[in-house]
Design a protein that fits this description.
The structure is a homodimer of 311-residue chains.
Chain A lengths: L1 E7 L3 E8 L4 E8 L6 H15 L4 E8 L2 E3 L4 E3 L11 H9 L4 E5 H12 L8 E6 L3 E7 L2 E2 L28 H6 L1 H14 L13 H9 L3 H25 L3 E5 L10 H11 L2 H6 L1 E4 L6 H17 L2
Parallel strand pairs in A: 1-4, 4-7, 8-11, 11-12
Antiparallel strand pairs in A: 1-2, 2-3, 5-6, 8-9, 9-10
Helix pairs in contact in A: 3-10, 5-7, 6-7, 7-8
């Protein structure tokens, strides 16, 4: 028996067949192109159809880029057109017939994936801090995924870390507004406007990866942007430590990535702020599964679906 | 059958007998005086002995002012002399013999109490934000008390809310350093030093309750201290909302108390910062049980101990 796992993103659908021990037996990746709404649902079913015949699938798990509402089985995915309240669970249950299926948000899947086969193995209290275009946290507390009262828990991009409130925090939050990939790019833009004499490598439109490259050469704007991020990443880490007292914090997403080289500086910053006993005991590590964390998480969801239905 | 509940504080021991339905049948309160170490353990046993003969006790629960380490059964209570690692569970198990006993931290008890008989009835995701001399949070997530990996979860007084780091945050954290009772008193002191012409009602040594009184008369320092607190309480509330997506946040402790009149301003501040969907859905309320939240929480612990041992 094998597990079917899918990681749906804003631009691609990744799919894997796992053995029940968590080995990847088959893997593929297809671009969403300009699909939206039901076309994305159709793509998932087509890809599933192609593999369901070839493997003896006992359960399926899906990682979605947004919020999964457990009671309704519906998905809100801001980067997929028309997916404001998409009935994915019902659609897949009908299609998969006897095969149980379990869906969850990307942030829940990241920490589940790391728990199953990555850096959080053996943990009951671990957090995946995902910093990419946006910022979110997948939180395992006492062995359970933290969902919240309305399935939106872990929206750490909205964390308040600097006062007073500034209107630029309104679209996506204070932490995300500075310290996500998008936030870093906006910060570059702002600093270039303030510093007309700047003649370094960065330009309007430079992205997070350009900032990391420019930092290597000592570029003044890159240094300012990265130092600002280190402070905020450290403060956010401190707040997770003080509130959740976790065994591990795992850093992943597109920005970690390159930013994992700054873990020692971030830990030093966090150590100033956090509850001191918890801070001494927490381990901070880079994601082991990197861009496959969501896919592994979906595999873990499939295993959960299998156990819950007892197939 | 009845439940024995004790709420141990830094200065008093409160004790109650609950019916299994959660009615208080008997209640007493005794000052710790200058007891420390084993004398406090002895006091608990003496008070227990007096009631155990008079009621048919099925289980006992104790709320302790600090950290309860579940695996060792030991207590760290900073305001009780010699209680750095006190073996309370073992001591009480021996004394109570066949009666099962369950211990937990004050912050866990506050939210358990509100869940049992207060403002969090029917909730699975609710947080008790306790602001008094210090600041802590009792967190229920998915129906479970959040303990963390080392039993220290909920240390929200350490929350980073303003940068850069300042040495005055070192002893007890940024949030607690400003917005606890102690923090408010320190803030008064600092503002008086900065403003030698001030001739209002506050003095060096004024306490939180004096600040609330002076605020009523428009006292300039009191207004500054309270406005500063409203901003920080709001930001902390926002961060709880974004991370935990709770159904309710319940405000208690000595400072809430008087500060509950500022709930509308705090909610307005929090609404600027927090994940907007979660913020619309959360309810913010004053503690229903007030200074009895810990005692009710201990009652709930007793009920839990009873259920777990099946007596």
């Amino acid at each position: 028996m094998a597990l079917l796992a899918a990681d749906l993103g804003g631009t691609k659908l990744a799919l894997a067949i796992f053995s029940e021990q968590g080995e990847i037996l088959f893997e593929e990746r297809v671009a969403l192109g300009n699909r939206a709404g039901e076309e994305v649902g159709l793509l998932i079913r087509e890809q599933f159809r192609a593999v369901v015949g070839r493997y003896d699938i006992s359960a399926a798990g899906i990682c979605v880029p947004g919020i999964y509402h457990k009671t309704t089985g519906r998905v809100w995915a801001p980067n997929i057109g028309g997916w404001t309240d998409y009935p994915l669970q019902a659609e897949l249950e009908e299609f998969l017939d006897q095969i149980p299926v379990c869906i969850d948000s990307d942030r829940a899947c990241y920490i589940l994936g790391e728990y199953w086969k990555g850096a959080a193995q053996g943990c009951k209290d671990a957090i995946y801090l995902a910093v990419g275009t946006g910022i979110g946290a997948g939180i395992m507390a006492g062995g359970q995924i933290l969902r919240g009262g309305h399935d939106i828990a872990g929206a750490i991009g909205w964390m308040a870390l600097e006062r007073p409130f500034h209107p630029r925090f309104a679209p996506a939050g204070c932490f995300e507004g500075y310290a996500s990939g998008t936030g870093m790019a906006l910060h570059v833009q702002k600093l270039m406007e303030e510093n007309v004499k700047y003649n370094g490598a960065l330009r309007q439109g430079s992205r997070a990866e350009d900032v990391f490259k420019a930092y290597e050469t000592g570029d003044e704007i890159a240094v300012q942007v990265i130092n600002n991020c280190i402070e905020l990443w450290g403060m956010a880490m401190a707040n997770l430590v003080s509130l959740f007292d976790p065994e591990k914090i795992i850093l992943g997403g597109g920005v970690f990535g390159p930013a994992v080289t700054f873990i020692p500086q971030m830990v030093a910053e966090a150590s100033k702020w956090a509850q001191p006993v918890s801070m001494k005991l927490v381990q901070v590590e880079a994601s082991m599964l990197q861009d496959k964390a969501g896919l592994y998480g979906a595999g873990m969801l499939a295993q959960k679906a299998k156990q819950e239905t007892g197939v």
